[in-house]
Write a structure and sequence with these properties.
The protein is an alpha/beta fold. The chain folds into four domains: 3-101, Alpha-helical ferredoxin (Fumarate Reductase Iron-sulfur Protein, Chain B, domain 2), CATH 1.10.1060.10; 106-162, no CATH class; 171-305, Up-down Bundle (Glutathione S-transferase Yfyf (Class Pi), Chain A, domain 2), CATH 1.20.1050; 311-427, Rossmann fold (3-Layer(aba) Sandwich), CATH 3.40.50. The chain contains 26 helices and nine strands. The chain has helices spanning 3-13, 15-18, 32-37, 44-55, 62-69, 76-80, 87-101, 106-119, 123-138, 141-148, 158-162, 171-175, 197-202, 204-216, 232-236, 240-255, 267-273, 276-279, 284-296, 300-306, 326-331, 336-343, 366-369, 371-385, 398-410, 422-427, and strands spanning 180-181, 189-193, 219-222, 261-264, 297-299, 318-323, 348-350, 392-395, 418-421. Helix 25 links the parallel strand 8 and strand 9. Helix 20 packs across helix 22. The termini are far apart. The model has no long low-confidence stretch (mean pLDDT 93). Bound molecules: iron/sulfur cluster (2 copies).
Length: 433
Protein backbone atom coordinates (compact mmCIF):
# COMPACT_ATOMS: atom_id res chain seq x y z
CA UNK A 1 0.00 0.00 0.00
CA UNK A 2 1.31 3.48 -0.86
CA UNK A 3 2.52 5.60 2.08
CA UNK A 4 -0.34 8.15 1.92
CA UNK A 5 -3.01 5.46 1.51
CA UNK A 6 -1.63 3.62 4.54
CA UNK A 7 -1.60 6.84 6.54
CA UNK A 8 -5.23 7.49 5.62
CA UNK A 9 -6.24 3.94 6.51
CA UNK A 10 -4.53 4.15 9.91
CA UNK A 11 -6.22 7.44 10.66
CA UNK A 12 -9.67 6.23 9.63
CA UNK A 13 -9.47 2.84 11.36
CA UNK A 14 -8.37 4.28 14.71
CA UNK A 15 -4.87 2.75 14.72
CA UNK A 16 -3.57 5.21 17.34
CA UNK A 17 -6.29 4.14 19.79
CA UNK A 18 -5.18 0.49 19.59
CA UNK A 19 -1.96 1.32 21.50
CA UNK A 20 -3.97 2.10 24.65
CA UNK A 21 -4.81 -1.60 24.95
CA UNK A 22 -2.33 -3.40 27.20
CA UNK A 23 -3.79 -6.85 26.49
CA UNK A 24 -4.79 -7.38 30.14
CA UNK A 25 -8.03 -9.19 29.25
CA UNK A 26 -10.16 -7.48 31.92
CA UNK A 27 -12.73 -6.79 29.19
CA UNK A 28 -13.19 -10.47 28.30
CA UNK A 29 -15.78 -11.39 30.98
CA UNK A 30 -17.83 -8.31 30.01
CA UNK A 31 -18.09 -9.27 26.34
CA UNK A 32 -21.25 -11.21 25.37
CA UNK A 33 -19.84 -12.40 22.03
CA UNK A 34 -16.72 -13.76 23.73
CA UNK A 35 -18.98 -15.54 26.21
CA UNK A 36 -21.19 -17.18 23.60
CA UNK A 37 -18.78 -17.59 20.67
CA UNK A 38 -15.72 -18.47 22.78
CA UNK A 39 -13.14 -17.12 20.33
CA UNK A 40 -10.37 -14.58 20.96
CA UNK A 41 -11.12 -13.01 17.56
CA UNK A 42 -14.64 -12.27 18.83
CA UNK A 43 -13.48 -10.56 22.02
CA UNK A 44 -12.64 -6.85 22.46
CA UNK A 45 -8.92 -7.56 22.86
CA UNK A 46 -8.91 -9.84 19.83
CA UNK A 47 -10.76 -7.34 17.65
CA UNK A 48 -8.35 -4.57 18.65
CA UNK A 49 -5.43 -6.80 17.68
CA UNK A 50 -7.01 -7.60 14.33
CA UNK A 51 -7.50 -3.89 13.59
CA UNK A 52 -3.86 -3.28 14.48
CA UNK A 53 -2.75 -6.09 12.19
CA UNK A 54 -4.78 -4.69 9.29
CA UNK A 55 -3.30 -1.23 9.89
CA UNK A 56 0.18 -2.74 9.88
CA UNK A 57 -0.57 -4.70 6.68
CA UNK A 58 -0.09 -8.02 8.47
CA UNK A 59 -3.61 -9.17 7.65
CA UNK A 60 -6.10 -8.61 4.82
CA UNK A 61 -8.90 -6.15 5.53
CA UNK A 62 -11.48 -8.73 4.47
CA UNK A 63 -10.45 -11.04 7.34
CA UNK A 64 -11.55 -8.34 9.76
CA UNK A 65 -15.10 -8.25 8.40
CA UNK A 66 -16.69 -11.16 10.27
CA UNK A 67 -15.27 -10.37 13.75
CA UNK A 68 -16.34 -6.73 13.39
CA UNK A 69 -19.78 -7.55 12.00
CA UNK A 70 -20.34 -9.97 14.88
CA UNK A 71 -19.52 -7.27 17.47
CA UNK A 72 -22.67 -5.95 19.17
CA UNK A 73 -21.20 -2.48 19.63
CA UNK A 74 -22.51 -2.63 23.20
CA UNK A 75 -19.32 -1.03 24.58
CA UNK A 76 -19.39 -3.04 27.81
CA UNK A 77 -15.68 -3.53 27.14
CA UNK A 78 -15.11 0.22 27.39
CA UNK A 79 -16.65 0.32 30.87
CA UNK A 80 -14.55 -2.69 31.94
CA UNK A 81 -11.26 -1.40 30.56
CA UNK A 82 -8.75 -0.12 33.17
CA UNK A 83 -6.74 1.84 30.57
CA UNK A 84 -9.81 3.55 29.10
CA UNK A 85 -9.15 2.15 25.63
CA UNK A 86 -11.67 3.74 23.29
CA UNK A 87 -12.93 0.58 21.66
CA UNK A 88 -15.98 2.48 20.36
CA UNK A 89 -13.74 4.70 18.22
CA UNK A 90 -11.81 1.66 16.92
CA UNK A 91 -15.05 -0.14 16.07
CA UNK A 92 -16.52 2.91 14.34
CA UNK A 93 -13.32 3.32 12.26
CA UNK A 94 -13.28 -0.35 11.30
CA UNK A 95 -16.96 -0.25 10.32
CA UNK A 96 -16.38 2.79 8.11
CA UNK A 97 -13.35 1.27 6.38
CA UNK A 98 -15.18 -2.03 5.84
CA UNK A 99 -18.26 -0.25 4.52
CA UNK A 100 -16.15 1.79 2.06
CA UNK A 101 -14.39 -1.32 0.76
CA UNK A 102 -17.45 -3.55 0.45
CA UNK A 103 -18.43 -4.58 -3.05
CA UNK A 104 -22.19 -4.31 -2.68
CA UNK A 105 -24.69 -5.79 -5.11
CA UNK A 106 -27.05 -3.39 -6.89
CA UNK A 107 -30.00 -4.68 -4.83
CA UNK A 108 -28.11 -4.18 -1.52
CA UNK A 109 -27.13 -0.63 -2.54
CA UNK A 110 -30.71 0.13 -3.52
CA UNK A 111 -32.14 -1.33 -0.30
CA UNK A 112 -29.71 0.68 1.82
CA UNK A 113 -30.51 3.84 -0.12
CA UNK A 114 -34.25 3.37 0.37
CA UNK A 115 -34.10 2.28 4.03
CA UNK A 116 -31.27 4.47 5.38
CA UNK A 117 -31.43 7.58 3.18
CA UNK A 118 -35.17 7.83 2.44
CA UNK A 119 -37.20 5.87 4.95
CA UNK A 120 -35.61 6.46 8.40
CA UNK A 121 -34.89 10.20 7.97
CA UNK A 122 -38.45 10.99 6.86
CA UNK A 123 -41.05 11.47 9.59
CA UNK A 124 -43.76 11.23 6.90
CA UNK A 125 -42.52 7.83 5.70
CA UNK A 126 -42.14 6.59 9.27
CA UNK A 127 -45.65 7.77 10.19
CA UNK A 128 -46.89 6.12 6.97
CA UNK A 129 -45.32 2.85 8.15
CA UNK A 130 -47.20 3.27 11.45
CA UNK A 131 -50.47 3.81 9.51
CA UNK A 132 -49.88 0.67 7.43
CA UNK A 133 -49.18 -1.40 10.55
CA UNK A 134 -52.31 0.00 12.18
CA UNK A 135 -54.42 -0.94 9.13
CA UNK A 136 -52.76 -4.37 9.02
CA UNK A 137 -53.89 -5.03 12.60
CA UNK A 138 -57.31 -3.37 12.52
CA UNK A 139 -58.53 -5.00 9.29
CA UNK A 140 -57.88 -8.44 10.76
CA UNK A 141 -55.16 -9.14 8.17
CA UNK A 142 -52.58 -9.58 10.92
CA UNK A 143 -54.63 -12.30 12.60
CA UNK A 144 -55.18 -14.10 9.30
CA UNK A 145 -51.49 -13.93 8.35
CA UNK A 146 -50.42 -15.28 11.73
CA UNK A 147 -53.01 -18.07 11.64
CA UNK A 148 -51.98 -19.15 8.15
CA UNK A 149 -48.33 -19.45 9.17
CA UNK A 150 -47.28 -17.07 6.40
CA UNK A 151 -45.02 -15.20 8.84
CA UNK A 152 -42.65 -18.18 8.69
CA UNK A 153 -41.93 -17.33 5.04
CA UNK A 154 -40.69 -13.82 5.82
CA UNK A 155 -36.93 -13.32 5.21
CA UNK A 156 -34.39 -12.77 8.03
CA UNK A 157 -36.80 -14.20 10.62
CA UNK A 158 -38.83 -10.99 10.35
CA UNK A 159 -41.98 -13.03 10.92
CA UNK A 160 -40.84 -13.74 14.47
CA UNK A 161 -40.45 -10.00 15.11
CA UNK A 162 -43.81 -9.27 13.49
CA UNK A 163 -45.42 -11.31 16.25
CA UNK A 164 -44.00 -9.16 19.05
CA UNK A 165 -44.34 -5.60 17.76
CA UNK A 166 -46.79 -3.54 19.82
CA UNK A 167 -50.18 -2.32 18.60
CA UNK A 168 -49.60 0.84 16.56
CA UNK A 169 -51.27 4.17 17.28
CA UNK A 170 -54.33 5.13 15.26
CA UNK A 171 -53.76 7.76 12.53
CA UNK A 172 -56.10 10.18 14.36
CA UNK A 173 -53.90 9.95 17.49
CA UNK A 174 -50.83 10.90 15.44
CA UNK A 175 -52.73 13.73 13.79
CA UNK A 176 -53.80 15.08 17.17
CA UNK A 177 -50.22 15.57 18.34
CA UNK A 178 -49.39 19.18 19.12
CA UNK A 179 -46.03 20.90 18.96
CA UNK A 180 -46.22 22.23 22.52
CA UNK A 181 -47.48 20.77 25.81
CA UNK A 182 -47.36 23.03 28.89
CA UNK A 183 -46.25 21.83 32.34
CA UNK A 184 -48.86 20.94 34.93
CA UNK A 185 -48.66 23.69 37.53
CA UNK A 186 -45.63 25.93 37.85
CA UNK A 187 -43.00 25.16 35.20
CA UNK A 188 -39.55 24.16 36.46
CA UNK A 189 -37.98 23.70 33.02
CA UNK A 190 -38.61 23.88 29.29
CA UNK A 191 -37.53 20.91 27.22
CA UNK A 192 -37.75 19.61 23.65
CA UNK A 193 -38.50 15.96 22.92
CA UNK A 194 -36.42 13.99 20.46
CA UNK A 195 -39.07 11.63 19.08
CA UNK A 196 -36.84 9.31 17.00
CA UNK A 197 -37.82 7.45 13.84
CA UNK A 198 -38.64 3.93 15.05
CA UNK A 199 -39.81 5.23 18.44
CA UNK A 200 -42.35 7.51 16.80
CA UNK A 201 -43.61 5.07 14.18
CA UNK A 202 -43.80 1.95 16.36
CA UNK A 203 -43.81 3.25 19.94
CA UNK A 204 -45.85 6.42 19.44
CA UNK A 205 -47.73 5.94 22.73
CA UNK A 206 -44.42 5.75 24.65
CA UNK A 207 -43.49 9.13 23.19
CA UNK A 208 -46.86 10.54 24.22
CA UNK A 209 -46.41 9.08 27.71
CA UNK A 210 -42.99 10.72 27.86
CA UNK A 211 -44.61 14.09 27.23
CA UNK A 212 -47.25 13.48 29.90
CA UNK A 213 -44.67 12.40 32.49
CA UNK A 214 -42.53 15.45 31.76
CA UNK A 215 -45.57 17.73 32.09
CA UNK A 216 -46.41 16.16 35.47
CA UNK A 217 -42.79 16.56 36.57
CA UNK A 218 -43.02 20.30 35.80
CA UNK A 219 -41.61 20.64 32.27
CA UNK A 220 -43.02 22.51 29.30
CA UNK A 221 -42.46 20.24 26.29
CA UNK A 222 -41.84 21.25 22.68
CA UNK A 223 -41.77 18.82 19.73
CA UNK A 224 -39.67 20.37 16.94
CA UNK A 225 -41.25 19.30 13.65
CA UNK A 226 -38.08 19.48 11.55
CA UNK A 227 -36.25 16.82 13.58
CA UNK A 228 -35.17 13.60 11.92
CA UNK A 229 -33.60 10.17 12.63
CA UNK A 230 -30.58 10.33 15.00
CA UNK A 231 -28.32 8.48 12.53
CA UNK A 232 -27.31 5.64 14.89
CA UNK A 233 -28.06 2.89 12.38
CA UNK A 234 -26.10 4.81 9.73
CA UNK A 235 -23.08 5.21 12.00
CA UNK A 236 -23.13 1.56 13.02
CA UNK A 237 -23.26 0.39 9.44
CA UNK A 238 -20.30 2.61 8.53
CA UNK A 239 -22.28 5.30 6.66
CA UNK A 240 -20.70 8.15 8.60
CA UNK A 241 -21.36 10.68 5.83
CA UNK A 242 -25.13 10.33 6.11
CA UNK A 243 -24.90 10.21 9.93
CA UNK A 244 -23.22 13.64 9.82
CA UNK A 245 -25.97 15.07 7.61
CA UNK A 246 -28.66 13.82 10.00
CA UNK A 247 -26.75 15.28 12.95
CA UNK A 248 -26.71 18.70 11.27
CA UNK A 249 -30.44 18.55 10.53
CA UNK A 250 -31.22 17.73 14.17
CA UNK A 251 -28.92 20.40 15.59
CA UNK A 252 -30.63 22.95 13.34
CA UNK A 253 -34.14 21.76 14.27
CA UNK A 254 -33.49 21.96 18.03
CA UNK A 255 -31.59 25.25 17.90
CA UNK A 256 -34.77 26.99 16.86
CA UNK A 257 -36.19 26.68 20.39
CA UNK A 258 -34.39 27.79 23.52
CA UNK A 259 -34.71 24.84 25.91
CA UNK A 260 -33.00 23.55 29.05
CA UNK A 261 -32.83 19.95 27.81
CA UNK A 262 -33.25 17.92 24.64
CA UNK A 263 -34.92 14.80 26.04
CA UNK A 264 -34.81 11.37 24.46
CA UNK A 265 -36.26 8.05 25.66
CA UNK A 266 -34.23 5.53 23.63
CA UNK A 267 -30.77 4.58 24.90
CA UNK A 268 -29.41 3.94 21.39
CA UNK A 269 -30.66 7.25 19.95
CA UNK A 270 -29.51 9.14 23.04
CA UNK A 271 -26.00 7.73 22.68
CA UNK A 272 -25.87 8.85 19.06
CA UNK A 273 -27.10 12.35 19.97
CA UNK A 274 -24.29 12.67 22.51
CA UNK A 275 -21.77 11.70 19.82
CA UNK A 276 -22.67 14.65 17.54
CA UNK A 277 -19.72 16.73 18.79
CA UNK A 278 -17.34 13.91 17.91
CA UNK A 279 -19.02 13.34 14.52
CA UNK A 280 -18.71 17.01 13.57
CA UNK A 281 -15.40 17.76 15.28
CA UNK A 282 -13.67 18.46 11.97
CA UNK A 283 -16.29 20.94 10.73
CA UNK A 284 -15.59 24.42 12.07
CA UNK A 285 -19.09 25.75 11.36
CA UNK A 286 -20.72 22.94 13.35
CA UNK A 287 -18.28 22.19 16.18
CA UNK A 288 -19.65 24.62 18.80
CA UNK A 289 -23.25 24.09 17.76
CA UNK A 290 -22.80 20.32 18.15
CA UNK A 291 -21.19 20.75 21.58
CA UNK A 292 -24.04 22.89 22.81
CA UNK A 293 -26.58 20.35 21.49
CA UNK A 294 -24.73 17.50 23.23
CA UNK A 295 -24.63 19.40 26.54
CA UNK A 296 -28.41 19.66 26.50
CA UNK A 297 -29.14 16.09 25.35
CA UNK A 298 -30.36 13.89 28.19
CA UNK A 299 -32.18 10.65 28.78
CA UNK A 300 -35.71 10.94 30.20
CA UNK A 301 -34.65 9.20 33.44
CA UNK A 302 -31.99 11.86 34.11
CA UNK A 303 -34.40 14.70 33.41
CA UNK A 304 -37.16 13.26 35.60
CA UNK A 305 -34.63 12.78 38.38
CA UNK A 306 -33.27 16.32 38.01
CA UNK A 307 -36.82 17.69 38.10
CA UNK A 308 -37.35 16.13 41.53
CA UNK A 309 -38.18 12.47 40.93
CA UNK A 310 -41.58 10.86 40.55
CA UNK A 311 -43.28 11.49 43.90
CA UNK A 312 -46.42 12.44 41.95
CA UNK A 313 -46.99 8.79 40.94
CA UNK A 314 -49.42 6.46 42.70
CA UNK A 315 -48.79 3.14 44.48
CA UNK A 316 -49.15 -0.15 42.60
CA UNK A 317 -47.68 -3.49 43.66
CA UNK A 318 -45.38 -5.34 41.27
CA UNK A 319 -42.18 -7.45 41.26
CA UNK A 320 -39.82 -6.08 38.61
CA UNK A 321 -36.33 -6.32 37.20
CA UNK A 322 -34.40 -4.00 34.91
CA UNK A 323 -32.56 -4.65 31.65
CA UNK A 324 -30.51 -1.51 30.98
CA UNK A 325 -29.81 -0.33 27.46
CA UNK A 326 -26.08 -0.80 26.69
CA UNK A 327 -25.81 2.58 25.03
CA UNK A 328 -27.48 4.27 27.97
CA UNK A 329 -25.10 2.50 30.37
CA UNK A 330 -21.79 2.31 28.54
CA UNK A 331 -21.94 5.34 26.24
CA UNK A 332 -24.15 7.85 28.05
CA UNK A 333 -23.01 6.46 31.44
CA UNK A 334 -26.53 6.76 32.86
CA UNK A 335 -26.84 3.94 35.40
CA UNK A 336 -28.31 5.27 38.66
CA UNK A 337 -31.34 7.31 37.59
CA UNK A 338 -33.53 4.63 35.95
CA UNK A 339 -33.11 2.35 38.97
CA UNK A 340 -33.61 5.19 41.42
CA UNK A 341 -36.90 6.09 39.71
CA UNK A 342 -38.08 2.46 39.90
CA UNK A 343 -36.99 2.00 43.50
CA UNK A 344 -38.70 5.23 44.57
CA UNK A 345 -42.11 3.78 43.68
CA UNK A 346 -44.15 2.48 46.56
CA UNK A 347 -45.41 -1.05 46.11
CA UNK A 348 -42.64 -2.00 43.67
CA UNK A 349 -40.24 -4.82 44.60
CA UNK A 350 -37.05 -4.50 42.56
CA UNK A 351 -34.95 -7.66 42.06
CA UNK A 352 -31.69 -7.07 40.22
CA UNK A 353 -30.75 -9.47 37.44
CA UNK A 354 -27.27 -11.06 37.37
CA UNK A 355 -25.07 -9.39 34.73
CA UNK A 356 -27.83 -6.87 34.02
CA UNK A 357 -25.31 -4.60 32.27
CA UNK A 358 -24.55 -7.21 29.62
CA UNK A 359 -26.17 -6.79 26.20
CA UNK A 360 -29.38 -8.73 25.50
CA UNK A 361 -28.40 -9.30 21.85
CA UNK A 362 -30.69 -6.69 20.33
CA UNK A 363 -27.99 -4.15 19.34
CA UNK A 364 -29.72 -2.09 16.66
CA UNK A 365 -30.50 -4.56 13.88
CA UNK A 366 -28.01 -7.20 15.08
CA UNK A 367 -30.85 -9.55 16.11
CA UNK A 368 -32.23 -9.34 12.57
CA UNK A 369 -28.99 -9.76 10.59
CA UNK A 370 -27.32 -12.19 13.03
CA UNK A 371 -30.44 -13.86 14.38
CA UNK A 372 -28.92 -17.11 15.67
CA UNK A 373 -26.03 -15.37 17.49
CA UNK A 374 -28.45 -12.84 19.00
CA UNK A 375 -30.75 -15.62 20.25
CA UNK A 376 -27.84 -17.39 21.95
CA UNK A 377 -27.01 -14.16 23.78
CA UNK A 378 -30.68 -13.68 24.61
CA UNK A 379 -30.94 -17.18 26.08
CA UNK A 380 -28.10 -16.35 28.50
CA UNK A 381 -29.93 -13.14 29.46
CA UNK A 382 -33.18 -15.00 30.11
CA UNK A 383 -31.36 -17.55 32.28
CA UNK A 384 -30.41 -14.59 34.51
CA UNK A 385 -33.87 -13.05 34.35
CA UNK A 386 -35.82 -16.08 35.54
CA UNK A 387 -34.34 -16.32 39.09
CA UNK A 388 -35.47 -12.72 39.77
CA UNK A 389 -39.09 -13.98 39.77
CA UNK A 390 -40.05 -10.66 38.21
CA UNK A 391 -43.37 -10.26 36.44
CA UNK A 392 -42.14 -7.17 34.63
CA UNK A 393 -38.86 -6.53 32.80
CA UNK A 394 -38.28 -2.79 32.49
CA UNK A 395 -36.10 -1.50 29.63
CA UNK A 396 -35.00 1.88 28.31
CA UNK A 397 -34.69 1.31 24.57
CA UNK A 398 -37.11 0.02 21.88
CA UNK A 399 -34.67 -2.61 20.58
CA UNK A 400 -34.10 -4.05 24.07
CA UNK A 401 -37.85 -4.02 24.65
CA UNK A 402 -38.55 -6.12 21.55
CA UNK A 403 -35.66 -8.44 22.39
CA UNK A 404 -37.04 -8.96 25.91
CA UNK A 405 -40.46 -9.69 24.41
CA UNK A 406 -38.75 -12.21 22.16
CA UNK A 407 -37.04 -13.78 25.19
CA UNK A 408 -40.36 -14.06 27.04
CA UNK A 409 -41.90 -15.76 24.00
CA UNK A 410 -38.97 -18.16 23.56
CA UNK A 411 -39.26 -19.15 27.22
CA UNK A 412 -43.05 -19.57 26.99
CA UNK A 413 -43.57 -17.00 29.76
CA UNK A 414 -46.15 -14.82 27.96
CA UNK A 415 -48.81 -15.48 30.61
CA UNK A 416 -46.67 -14.50 33.60
CA UNK A 417 -44.02 -12.01 32.47
CA UNK A 418 -44.16 -8.82 30.42
CA UNK A 419 -41.57 -6.39 29.07
CA UNK A 420 -42.24 -2.66 29.23
CA UNK A 421 -40.44 0.62 28.59
CA UNK A 422 -39.57 2.56 31.76
CA UNK A 423 -41.70 5.48 30.57
CA UNK A 424 -44.79 3.30 30.09
CA UNK A 425 -44.17 1.59 33.43
CA UNK A 426 -44.07 4.95 35.23
CA UNK A 427 -47.07 6.25 33.28
CA UNK A 428 -49.22 3.37 34.53
CA UNK A 429 -48.90 5.06 37.94
CA UNK A 430 -49.95 8.54 36.86
CA UNK A 431 -52.86 9.92 38.88
CA UNK A 432 -56.14 9.74 36.97
CA UNK A 433 -56.96 13.41 37.42
S1 LIG B 1 -9.35 -3.36 25.82
FE1 LIG B 1 -8.77 -2.70 27.88
S2 LIG B 1 -9.50 -4.34 29.22
FE2 LIG B 1 -9.45 -5.19 27.13
S3 LIG B 1 -7.43 -6.13 26.96
FE3 LIG B 1 -7.23 -4.04 26.18
S4 LIG B 1 -6.56 -2.83 27.95
FE4 LIG B 1 -7.34 -4.76 28.77
S1 LIG C 1 -18.68 -3.82 21.99
FE1 LIG C 1 -19.65 -5.49 23.17
S2 LIG C 1 -19.63 -7.24 21.76
FE2 LIG C 1 -18.19 -5.73 20.92
S3 LIG C 1 -16.20 -6.28 21.76
FE3 LIG C 1 -17.06 -4.78 23.19
S4 LIG C 1 -18.14 -6.00 24.76
FE4 LIG C 1 -17.77 -7.36 22.99
Amino acid sequence: MKEQALKDLREKIGYDYTFDCVQCGYCLPACPTYETMGKETHSPRGRINLVKMVAEEKMALEDLREPIEKCLGCQACVTACPTNTQYGRILEGAQEVLNDSEKKSVSKKLTEKIVFDTFFPSSKWMAGFGHVMWGYEKTGLQKAVRKSGLTKLAPLNLGKFEEIIPSPAAPKERKARKTYYPAKGKAKATVALFTGCIMDSTFFSTNQNTITLLNHAGANVYIPEAQTCCGALHSHSGDVKQARELAKSNIKAFEEINVDFVVNNAGGCGAQLTEYDHLLSNEAEWRDRARSFVEKSKDISTVLWELGGVSFLEEKEEVVTYQPSCHLTHVQKVTKEPKALIQALSGVVFNEMKDEQKCCGSAGIYNIVHYDDAMEILDVKMSHMKPTKAHTIITTNPGCLLQMKMGIKREGLEDSVRAVHLVDFLSERLPLT
